[in-house]
Design brief:
The protein contains no helices and ten strands. The protein has about 130 residues and is mostly beta strands. It folds into two domains: about 80 residues, Immunoglobulins (Immunoglobulin-like), CATH 2.60.40.10; about 40 residues, no CATH class. Strands 1, 3, 6, 7 and 8 form a five-stranded mixed beta sheet that branches. Strand 4 and strand 5 form a beta hairpin. The relative contact order is 0.23.
Amino acid sequence: LTPTGSTSTKVELRGNVLLLECIAAGLPTPVIRWIKEGGELPANRTFFENFKKTLKIIDVSEADSGNYKCIARNTLGSVHHVISVTVKAAPYWITAPRNLVLSPGEDGMLICRANGNPKPSISWLTNGVPI
């Protein structure tokens, strides 16, 4: 089985295509199956290529992080490999701040929600000076 050993790791960026590969040898030729440990493969974003040797997940997100197992099986036995996947993400807006026009003495609220992996820090500035 390639990759060799029982485990390996893979890091991918949010929004990219995740490609995981397992190549098995045997006679009779093994059938390859993929599972996500403790979860499901994403329904509309998962594709198999190369007679299931390649697992392809498009538009990956942080929720796609986890352990993916490929299992190669024939009538004489089976072998497996676990690939630990981490999806990293540059900061992105959940709720971006919007322009606010206020009259003198009026109160207002600016909301800023961002996410990423690693989690981004948020800082507020007014005219380039930290608040």
